[in-house]
Amino acid sequence: MSSIRLFLVAGILATLTLFNFVAALRGYQTSMEEADLLFDNQLLDFARLVGRLDLTDTHEELRLGNNLAFQVWDQDALIAHSYHAPVEPISAFSNGFDFSNFDGYRWRTYTRHETLSGHWVIVAERTDLRYVLAENVVLESILPILLSIPLVGLLIWLIVSHGLRPLAVLSAELKNKHVNDLSPVQAQNTRRELAQVVQSINGFMARLNQSVEREKRFSADAAHELRTPISALKVQLHNLSGEIDTGSDTWQQLQHGVERMQHLVEQLLTLYRMNPDKFAENCQQVDLYQVCEDVIARQYSLVESRQQHLALEGDHCRITGDVFALDTLVSNLLSNASKYTPAEGNILVRVHRQGGRIMLDVEDDGPGIPEAERERIFERFYHSEKSPQEGDPPGCGLGLTIVSHVAHLHQADVSVGVSSFGKGSRFTVSFPEAPI
Question: Domains of the chain by range and CATH?
């Protein structure tokens, strides 16, 4: 908005300044020409006055000031002259205007022959003083125009700001909209040109809202509809386990496939529940250490069955967030660490304060994540090249995506590095601390 205002004001002011400059320059030239004509007429009147004076009995030099001089000649004899005039002819004995140099200055001269007396009258005026007077007159007329440019600029700024006010109101309304508010813009007293913009924005929001709603319904409906056949498959597998050899590779692959499908559906449902509009309604102050304790108590049997060593360290730290979302984040990080940690490996969960932030670290001593993959592991359906432990089904590629999404909802940052065990991975989530 400010760039448009500055562009309009600068453009209009530059155009006015350019036209004023050209007009002032042209006015200066014209005024100087008129001033020259005026001074020449005065010089002509001065010559007529001198020609009518009886100067034959004058024996002293006449003092007329620093800017005027005259001579009166009778043939080749100088019969009268002013104080500054030399004894030589100032100009040639020829009627008309000319220029001459004497007494260290440039002079404008006028020569006139008096027919009655037969005398030649030569008058002169200093050009430097003449131009100073002329320029003072011209500048007094131009100076107000130049001084008015800042005032005109301020006036243009106010006019442009008033004209852009509806656009500023629309911009403020769009800026203050909630991230999930796709309702139409209610711009009041909208100008005709801006009404078309508002109409286009509202049309775009309506189409976007329809697209978002379709995606939400599809994800929710698909996940809910898939739960029923998956549950039926698990029941049939359980019934079938008493009739066939459950140690065969075919049986293991079938069981892992069903478990992976169920895990994918649950992750899709979790991702759907993590929408920002639902998240804001459930925010409260949460003890992150307590959330980690609850997740570890729930998953400890799985970690113990893999003969892994799990520890929880740190302090009780409070953050603002959604309990279900934070539970999902810790659960996915812990499941990911357990999946890639070998038997009798180590997993460490730590909650602590650092630099005014609440830090959650989940470390393992598994194979680790190559540095080239650390930026991509949070992408949807991305699978790392490292393999889970034997017997574990491959993931669906949504766990770390959900971790990143939950962190973003809590205005937290997620980073991946090398664990303190010397090998393996360390996932660090940095939360803002809850206000006291």
Answer: 2-147 (3.30.450), 278-432 (3.30.565.10)
